[in-house]
Amino acid sequence: MLQSNMLQNDRSRALLDSVMPREQAEEGGIGDLVTFASGFLRRQYPVIIFVTALALAASAIYLRITPPTYTGQVKVLFSNPKAPFVQQQSMLAETPIDAAQLETQIQILKSKAIATAVIDQLKLADDPDFTDSGPLPSVWQAIRRWFGTPPDHQVIRREEAMDGLVAAFDERLSAFRLGFSNVIEITFNASNADRSAEIANAIANAYVTDKLNAKFDANRTATAWLQDRLKELGQQALTAERAVNAFKSQNNIVAAGGKLMDEQQVADLNGRLVAARAQTSEALARLNRFQAILASNSADSMSIGSLDSSGSEALANPIITALRQQYLEYARRESEWSARFGRDHLAVVNLRTRMRGVRTSVLDEVRRLAETSRNDFETAKQREQEIEKQLAVAVAQSHTTNSAELTMRELETSAKGYRTLYESFLQRYMGSAQQESFPISEARVISPASPPQGKSKPKTGLILAIAILGGIALGTGFGFLRDIMDRVFRTSAQLEAALQLPCLSLVPLLRSAKQKKSLPGSASQTEREFGQRTISRSSEMYWAASSMPLSQFAESIRAIKLAIDLNPTKTSNKIIGITSSLPNEGKSTIAVSLAQLIGHAGKQVIIVDCDLRNPSLSADLAPRATAGVIDVLSGARSLEETIWKDPETNLAFLPAAKRGPLFHTSEILSAEQTRKLFDKLRETYDYVIIDLPPLAPIVDVRAAAPLIDCFILVVEWGRTRTEVVEHALHTAPNVYEALIGTVLNKTNMRAMKRYNNYYNDYYNNEHYTRYGQVAAE
User: Fold this and answer.
1) What is the SS3 string spanning 159-228?
2) Is 578 helix (H, G, I), strand (E, B) or coil?
3) Which among 212, 188, 213 is positioned nearest to 198, based on CA atoms?
4) At 344, is the secondary structure helix, strand, or coil?
5) How far is CA 434 from CA 216, 234, 423, 438, in A?
């Protein structure tokens, strides 16, 4: 039998090993992402739909309460359309159009002057779109009219009202430059399409008119000022010219060619003096060069190489040139003969003597040229001195007329300045007059506004699209948050991964257990036939397995029984402890249902309620029990006197009758008497099902662990948190070692399809109904 169980367990492991790689392969890559997304949508689609519906409702309310806005658009070109001849005649400087100038024009468009002009032109003060500010201001105005408002206050109120209209006007107006062009687009928002276009066109026209009026005013003011100034300058120029002529007549001042006679004479002498000084400098320089040549060539020197660097004048002399060529020929022969006959040969010595004579002749010629240059220098210097004397005499003569000349020149300068200024102003005056006759503005409308076909805001399609996308995104975020916060067990895979234990069964949630109604008087008849210690069937939940043997619930309990029989860890699995981490996870229901199926199959089975501090199972199955396991352990009652039975399922039950609070239940469960009782039950029954207390609140399960062959941990689906179960098993290592598996209880089979993507067909009711099973609903 043991070999058969081990063989079957090996086959199960082999099957598990073959399935797990396939799951891991399916979980990788894009398939894993698609599976996760589909599972997430199945789990959280109500949240996403709800949040999206809320967003759509909010957007619908916004669209309902928000009045429509229509935008009128007009385009204005800002340029310099003047002809070149008009620009030349313009009195005002024409600045180039740049970004700063366009920005200035945009600020002019948004100015209070333009807004006030449009408001007055279109009577926007009476437009309810601008004046509707709610009931409170109207009530306040009525109160002020009733009590009477002083005249000054009325003026202030009108100014405040106009400021409010201008502020409301500016909020609806916008102007901006289109790209890098000189086009300014003006837009205005209004609640009426025709009104928005009308106001936009009025703004553009008011701006163009303002530009023309400003230019007209500037030209008119400049023309008037120029006219007055021209009269004044003309009279001043005429007076200055008359003064010049009168002064010349009084002082006998004669001018030739536009210059005075004395000035002309001094200018001529100055020119001659400059030429003389240049000639003197040239002669001195030539003399210095000749003297430098003579100083650098001594009488004993044989070389005339210094003549090469002396300048072009010495070399240009024909006598020196001939002597130099002769000297060079003698030098060549002397070099050759010295190499051939030796330096002391008579011919060589004669050549040196001839070379010395040639050099002496060259120096004599240079001395002659130097003497000639000295004579030229003396002559030029004498001429320069004579011209200086003449210039001094002319300057002395001109000093006598300096005072009169200065006065005359001052008068002439004044007259010329007045005349030049008069001519300049006259030219500007003519240009200003032409500018007034040629009215052109820098701005013109190139695209007038027309009534818009649709509202500009709120944009229904955009707002609804944002609401849908935002709702989906927000709902998805809430869904992810719910998934992250959902730290409970939903699938067997989660349970096995967290606890490293097999999940023996998924027990479905029992919503309404149905069983056959007993006839009147049948309960008393059963008690008379089987005695007073008959197990109560008042709680329908405990008897679902026997009353619905073809249900999914009953099949899941059979899976637990099969796992107990095939457990290869111990030779004996008679005493099975059923526990949980927290109370109310359904461990007692699992224990009773498991015992029912075992007893119904013909086996001897007994349930022992070892939850001594809170014997809820005893309260349901044996509510009138006066003796229980405590009495058996103390020896007050025998085992046979305390056992309760169910005649239909052959189920035996040892209750825990609670008479008062027990403070040492862990010592009771670990006592020797308890071990003897369990040994007796092991000998008497085929299966002993122990309903134990939960692990987390008390330590009774750890105390009773040595007496239990194997444990089954019940975990409630969707309620028990992962950390709680892990901590409970971590604090009870002896219980964890004896666990053969876990049971996921109260499982919502319909919801499992949303959490277990790979095995969603496993939870389909159609597969169970083919074998006569019905869902436990």
Assistant:
1) HHHHHHHHHHHHHHEEEEECCCCCEEEEEEEECCHHHHHHHHHHHHHHHHHHHHHHHHHHHHHHHHHHHH
2) strand
3) 188
4) coil
5) 12, 22, 17, 6
Per-residue pLDDT tens over the stretch 642-666: 999 888 888 899 998 777 777 788 8
The overall average pLDDT reported for the chain is 76
Q: What is the pLDDT of residues 554-584, one digit of tens each?
A: 888 888 988 888 877 656 788 999 999 999 8
- What is the β-pairing status of strands 687-691 and 605-609? parallel
DSSP labels for 119-145? HHHHTGGG-HHHH---HHHHHHHHHHH
Task: Provide the token pair at 732.
Answer: 């009870």
Closest CA to 594 of 618, 610, 615, 576: 576
What's the length of the chain? 777
Q: Which residue has the tokens 């006959």?
A: 341
Q: Which two tokens stand for residue 104?
A: 């200035």
From CA 621, how far away is CA 536, in angstroms rounded? Answer: 5
3-class DSSP state for residue 102?
Answer: helix
Does domain 492-769 correspond to CATH entry 3.20.20.60? Answer: no
Place of tokens 């894009």: 30
**Coil, strand, or helix at residue 536?**
coil
Of 328, 335, 329, the residue nearest 304 (C-alpha): 328
Q: What Å distances lie between residue 707 and 401, 626, 637, CA to CA?
A: 149, 26, 22
Alpha helix stretches (DSSP H) within 442-521? 460-485, 492-499
Residue that the structure tokens 């120096």 belong to: 363
pLDDT of residue 579: 93
User: Closest Cα partner for 608 from 597, 599, 595, 626?
Assistant: 595
Tokens at 613, concatenated = 């501090």
Kindly state the percentage of the chain with pLDDT values over 90.
7
Say if residues 86 and 435 touch (Cβ distance below 8 Å): yes
How many Cα neighbours within 13 Å face the side chain of 736?
Answer: 13
Mapped onto helix, strand or coil, the DSSP state of residue 1 is coil
| Cβ contact 369:287 at 8 Å | no
Q: Is the peptide bond before 452 cis (omega within 30 degrees of 0)?
A: no
DSSP state of 28: S
Q: Find, among 184, 174, 210, the residue nearest to 99 by Cα.
A: 184
